[in-house]
Structures are given as C-alpha cells and as structure tokens.
C-alpha cells in the first residue's frame, strides 16, 4: 500500500456524499462508496488491490469500528422504546418465521446449500439505516417506536446468528467464540456502569477535555482492538466484537464528545476505506457470466421485503413494515466473512449486495410514504391587552394592525411560546410607538452534527450566543453561553444563566433566575425550580425535579425520576451513601 493508493481511495470515496446530497432519494452514503470501490477495483479500473495485506488490515479496523458505531445506534436506554419492546419482539419473531420458509425455499430453488445464511439475511434489519431515516423524516408515534424496537431486535439477533449460519460445520466453535465475546461485553458493561455511577468517567472526561488528552477516544479504541483480538483468537468475526462493545456503550450512554470523535474517525477515513475496499473486492463480472446470481440477488431482495411486509397483519402500517426491511450491515458482514473464508460461490457475494440494494431502495420509498405532511406553524390566539404570557412574562400590547413587522406571515407576539419559526426574522414591540427590535433568536440556522452524523438545526441566542433549537422556548433575558445547547421542547425562563458547555435536553423546563454552571447536563423532561443553582459538571437525570432555591454542589448526579433536596452537596454524598439513592442527597419521586 502506498500514499497514492490512499489518495485514490480518499478521492473516490467522496462519491458517497455526492450521491447522498439529494434529500428526496435518501441514499445511504455507503452506497456511493461501494460503487466507487467497484469502479476502481477488480470489476473496473483495477487501481486498488483489495488483496494488499495493509489495505485489508485497515479495512478490518474500519469494519470493526463501523459495527461498533452501529451498536451504539441501538436505543437501549430509551424508556419509550422499552415499553414498545413486546410488540416489536413479536413482529421480529413473525418476520423470522416467514424468513425461514422463504430462505429455505430460495436455497432449494437455486440449488445452493446456504439456507441458514439466507434465512438470517431475510430476517435481518439495519438499525444504522432505519434509525437515520426515521430521524430525518421526523416520524413519531407508537407504531414508530415499535418499529425501532423490532429493528433493534432483528439487528442484534442477525449479527449474533450470522457467524453460526454462514459456516454450519464450525457452528460449535463459533458458538463458543461468540459466548466468549458476549461475556467480555457484559463485563465491559458492568465496568462502564460502575465508572459512570461513581463519577470516575465524568472526572476522566473533564480531565481529557481540559488538557486535550483525548483519553476517552484512546481507551475506547484500545478496548475495541482488544475485543477484536479476542474475536480473532476465538475464531469468530470481528463484526461481533465491534457490535457487542457498541451495545455495552449504548446501554450505559455514549458521551456526545466521544460520539463526535468516533464519527470523525469512522465516517471520515476508516469507514469509507472499508466500503471502497469491499467494493473493490467484489467481482461483478461473475454476475455477468452467471445470470443465475443476478436472479438470486433480486430474489433475496424481494423475499426480504415480503418477509417484513407480513407485519401488516399484526397492525403495523405497511410503509413502516417495508421500511424495516432495509439491510446493509448484515449482508456486508456476510460478504466480508464469506469472501475471507472462501465460503461463498463465485458471484454469490455480489448477489448478496444486490439483494441489499433492493431492500434499501424499497425502504427509501416507503419512508417517504410514511412521512406525514408538514404541520403548519402554530399561531397563538390573541391575548387581551394587559394579559401576561406565562413563559415570557411580557404584557401583551397588541394593536389592531398587529405587532410584528418584517415578516412573511402574520404571527402573534406570543409565537415565542410556540414553536419558533424556521423561515423568518421576527421583530416585536413591547409598547405601541416603540421602535421594532430584533428577536432574541437569530434568523440564520446553523447545522450541527450530533451523535453519529445526524444533522440538527440551531439558532444563536442573542444573549450569550448559545445554540438554541428552533422548537425551544428561551426568554430574551436569559443568558445562554456560546458553547451551550438548548434542545427542542426545552423552556428557559427569565434571567436564567446557562454556563459554557451545558446541555439542556429535550422537554426540560428551567425556571426563572436559575444558575447553571459549566458542563452541566439537564436531562429530558427534567424540571429546575426558580432560583436553583446547579454546580459545574452536575448531571440531572431524565424527569428529575430540582426544587425552587435548591443548591447543588459540583460533580453531583441526580438519578432519573428523582427529587433533589434543598441542598445536595458532597457532604450529603457521604451521609446518604447507604440510602436508596446513594451519594446524591435525593429521594425517589415515586
């Protein structure tokens, strides 16, 4: 491998983002990268040698990292998804039953002794594809939550079963190796949970951030490579090592800063290199010489769609059922394992990828059908003069001709308490005769990549320059530091102060005159009373309650659904070590 080869791979991999730019098509980036690999590989220009040991090693690292990222996408910590687990599991089971019949029939029809492999492929789903589609289309509701649970279950089960299905004669050895990797991931989960509960992980995070050590990234990569070494030693795929480690991290909760770092490495270099290498290793000339394999790929794709469409009989809307058929990670893993172990027939690897492309196309179309038409911007009813808005605490002074200028539509002053408009610059008057002034939220959107590549839009708050979601409600007198985030649905009342690096999660409510130190996380739907003070590096759990006037010392963690006492400090930490909620000075909300 030379720098010339790396330059070629980096340039042609740009085809992935170029093809994914049109939003209506919603094509995954990896499709363009696979196509680029086919063009420069043995099926095309032969500029990249997929048998080069150095490129193969880097591709294996990218493969393990991509599987790790896919594992972190599984929403194990979402309480709403856990409540939909039962129906999702039932639908995944029904899909697997139909997939068993279809997979066995396809293997018998084509005379190929790979029925277990086809069954796993037909029953699988790709959380790394379906979840971004759901997020980009903003699909919501209980059926969507059930689809998320179904996809997560199918993805986990397929990745665990694939090493056993692709090589049945060595299934016993693969089962022992898979058990060893799974046991190691359970140990990792217990260790990570303990570090999170004691605050050691948070202290390491602050040290790494302040000293720019990147310790979290270094440790995660070291653990990932250790898991991959265990998988190789146990004769199982590194796919299982990466995915199981990703699940362990997802169960504890992946830090946002680490997610951004991993996104840069995985989607910026090693991931594209892996997909280009995979495309370069495919020989599509085998498909031209073997038309039977083209028919096999199309049949596998159609059968996978049919297997997931049967969930319509269990009450799932048909577009959502078709969308859940999207698969790429498992077919790619099957091709990688089968090609490296010489377990697939000539042309069969390309046929598996062709079948995956069919499911992706159907899923993209079905996702567009499932998307609801955009809702109109809400407009609050007029308030009588002198009435005070409960959020902004402003007195309405509406005049008959309206109070907003420089707007494409007529909006009320109270639109600040509804969803902030995404398309216009608002000005308002506090009293008749005053000169219009700019709203406290800027007009220009800023796109920010969160987690593993999801793009969300924010606007700069006029007081402090912090990033505020268009769907958040922040009082004009509140101060939001430039590196702080306020997510959609959150409310920040008058004269509150949000420090640098703090994150106000979805639906959280911050009272008036609240002080929030730096690097504080206020969880989703949490409530902080008027005049409360949250010390730096505190973590307020989901749906937690902080009473008015409470004072929390730094580095404290309030568990989910808990209620803080008036004063929670490190002294309270020692006094409550043996309580139901140790180390917090808290009592259960229940």
From TrEMBL:
<feature type="transmembrane region" description="Helical">
    <location>
        <begin position="213"/>
        <end position="232"/>
    </location>
</feature>
<dbReference type="InterPro" id="IPR006153">
    <property type="entry name" value="Cation/H_exchanger_TM"/>
</dbReference>
<dbReference type="Pfam" id="PF00999">
    <property type="entry name" value="Na_H_Exchanger"/>
</dbReference>
<feature type="transmembrane region" description="Helical">
    <location>
        <begin position="55"/>
        <end position="76"/>
    </location>
</feature>
<dbReference type="InterPro" id="IPR001451">
    <property type="entry name" value="Hexapep"/>
</dbReference>
<keyword id="KW-1133">Transmembrane helix</keyword>
<dbReference type="Pfam" id="PF00132">
    <property type="entry name" value="Hexapep"/>
</dbReference>
<protein>
    <recommendedName>
        <fullName>Cation/H+ exchanger transmembrane domain-containing protein</fullName>
    </recommendedName>
</protein>
<keyword id="KW-0812">Transmembrane</keyword>
<feature type="transmembrane region" description="Helical">
    <location>
        <begin position="88"/>
        <end position="110"/>
    </location>
</feature>
<feature type="compositionally biased region" description="Pro residues">
    <location>
        <begin position="375"/>
        <end position="384"/>
    </location>
</feature>
<feature type="transmembrane region" description="Helical">
    <location>
        <begin position="292"/>
        <end position="311"/>
    </location>
</feature>
<comment type="similarity">
    <text>Belongs to the monovalent cation:proton antiporter 2 (CPA2) transporter (TC 2.A.37) family.</text>
</comment>
<dbReference type="InterPro" id="IPR038770">
    <property type="entry name" value="Na+/solute_symporter_sf"/>
</dbReference>
<feature type="domain" description="Cation/H+ exchanger transmembrane">
    <location>
        <begin position="11"/>
        <end position="362"/>
    </location>
</feature>
<dbReference type="InterPro" id="IPR011004">
    <property type="entry name" value="Trimer_LpxA-like_sf"/>
</dbReference>
<keyword id="KW-0813">Transport</keyword>
<feature type="transmembrane region" description="Helical">
    <location>
        <begin position="147"/>
        <end position="166"/>
    </location>
</feature>
<dbReference type="GO" id="GO:1902600">
    <property type="term" value="P:proton transmembrane transport"/>
</dbReference>
<keyword id="KW-0406">Ion transport</keyword>
<feature type="region of interest" description="Disordered">
    <location>
        <begin position="568"/>
        <end position="590"/>
    </location>
</feature>
<dbReference type="GO" id="GO:0016020">
    <property type="term" value="C:membrane"/>
</dbReference>
<feature type="transmembrane region" description="Helical">
    <location>
        <begin position="116"/>
        <end position="135"/>
    </location>
</feature>
<feature type="transmembrane region" description="Helical">
    <location>
        <begin position="172"/>
        <end position="192"/>
    </location>
</feature>
<dbReference type="GO" id="GO:0015297">
    <property type="term" value="F:antiporter activity"/>
</dbReference>
<feature type="region of interest" description="Disordered">
    <location>
        <begin position="371"/>
        <end position="415"/>
    </location>
</feature>
<keyword id="KW-0050">Antiport</keyword>
<keyword id="KW-0472">Membrane</keyword>
<feature type="transmembrane region" description="Helical">
    <location>
        <begin position="262"/>
        <end position="280"/>
    </location>
</feature>
